[in-house]
Specification:
Helix content is 39%, strand content 16%. By secondary structure, it is of the alpha/beta class.
Length: 182
């Protein structure tokens, strides 16, 4: 049985036993916060527990490195929806120590990609103006990555100027949070 089949089998029992009841909440964040954090597996349960967050408290957006790569990427779109449609009044960008995005070498990743897709695909993207190396770039330090994402959001033309945007870094070994920006 593969992983998906195991999950679906578990899900049948989960629904049958009404285990979802303890997770019921509205679609609006009770604490009026949207969090951008990394997709790192160590943060799935640790981050909410370390911040005393329960189901329904916040909107959570996750991607590799908690990075806003462009002012008009899907991360920013999600934050815009959270602010204007889902009553979020603050944004927290939370990176973490020992993040894989700080270790990504664009040329090595690009090489792996080129082993899976044809060079024509990569060439077409480059001719369309997509700089793969800069798009795949991580960050020098997690603090710099968080500061950059916070700066993009604080200066975004479509977000309210008085919207609080905070930057934090969590230690995935201990759950300790450090504030990087105000």
């Amino acid at each position: 049985m593969n992983t998906l089949q195991e999950a679906l089998k578990f899900n049948e029992e989960f629904v049958k036993n009404k285990e979802y009841v303890s997770y019921e909440t509205t679609g609006l964040p009770d604490k009026k916060v949207v969090i951008l954090s990394c997709m790192d597996t160590r943060l799935v349960e640790l981050l909410p527990r370390a911040m005393n967050l329960k189901n329904g408290d916040v909107k959570m957006v996750k991607n590799a490195g908690a990075i806003v790569t462009h002012p008009f990427d899907s991360v920013v779109r999600s934050i815009l929806v959270a602010v204007y449609e889902l009553q979020a009044e603050e944004v927290w960008v939370i990176g973490h120590h020992d993040c894989g995005m700080g270790k990504v070498k664009p040329d090595a990743l690009r090489h792996k990609i080129e082993e899976s897709v044809t060079k024509d695909v990569v060439s077409t993207m480059e001719h369309a103006g997509i700089d793969l190396d800069s798009w795949l770039e991580g960050f020098t330090t997690v603090q710099d990555g968080v500061r950059n994402s916070v700066s993009i959001l604080q200066n975004h033309p479509l977000l309210p100027k008085d919207l609080p945007v905070h930057g934090l870094v969590i230690d995935p070994a201990t759950g300790k949070l450090d504030q990087v920006t105000e």
